[in-house]
Amino acid sequence: MTEQHEFDKGYWDRHWHQVHHDHPGAVGAAPPHPYLARETAGLTPGTVLDAGCGTGTEAIWLASHGWQVTAVDIASAALALAAGRASDAGVPERVRWVEADLTTWEPGTQFDLVTTHYAHPAMPHLAFYDRIAGWVAPGGSLLIVGHLHTSEATGHGHHPPEEASVTLADITAGLDSATWEMVTAEEHRRSVPGREVPLHDVVVRATRRR
């Protein structure tokens, strides 16, 4: 039977406290998602929202490449680690860390780029993507990297729960072509050093029409 997760504040605070306790050297050791550099290479740095930033790997990378970042996460434990890492990286002034529930929080502005990487919100994923898409400014970009829903057996404990995975078709169907120009819509299977099984990713980038 598949274990169900709430993905609320309590869940994520416990998760990051446990990760930091069990693997203190692991936080910040992994590089940013490989799609981030590729998908932002042709974009002019501006304002960006990192939705579900965790310990800040992608937010810090973006700040280091000229973006002014608003990084939001529900877990105070993750944000404390992220802020320390931003200082170590020399970009604390380029990142605003916000502790908030993305299912109810409103930014009060729009961004040149809205991105999310493996976010596990306490709401259905497609509704979450629709919500954050509304924060993209005209002419801006939406970048989604998620766990691809697959029937491939990966072994207990080595794959995301079903409610945290999505299909490419479902994401693209939610982006109306009258509003969005699709730039990237891909599925990937990639190996990660130290991980027994490959990751199955879905990557979508779209530009909001002006």
Structure in words:
- The chain is built from 6 helices and 8 strands.
- It is an alpha/beta fold and 210 residues long.
- The protein is globular and about 45 Å long.
- Mean pLDDT is 86; it is low at 153-158.
- Keywords: Methyltransferase, Transferase.
- Residues 48-140 form the Methyltransferase domain.
- It comes from Micromonospora zamorensis.
- One of its GO terms (molecular function) is methyltransferase activity.
Break the fold down into its secondary structure elements and pairings.
Elements lengths: L8 H14 L11 H7 L6 E5 L5 H8 L3 E6 L2 H14 L5 E5 L11 E7 L7 H9 L2 E13 L16 E2 L1 H6 L6 E11 L8 E10 L2
Parallel strand pairs: 1-2, 1-4, 2-3, 4-5, 5-6
Antiparallel strand pairs: 5-8, 7-8
Give the percentage of residues in beta strands. 25-35%
Low-pLDDT residue intervals, each spanning 5 or more residues: 153-158
Class computed from helices, strands and strand pairing:
alpha/beta
Q: Write down the Rg.
A: 16 Å
Q: How many beta-strand runs?
A: 8
**Shape, principal axes of CA atoms:** globular
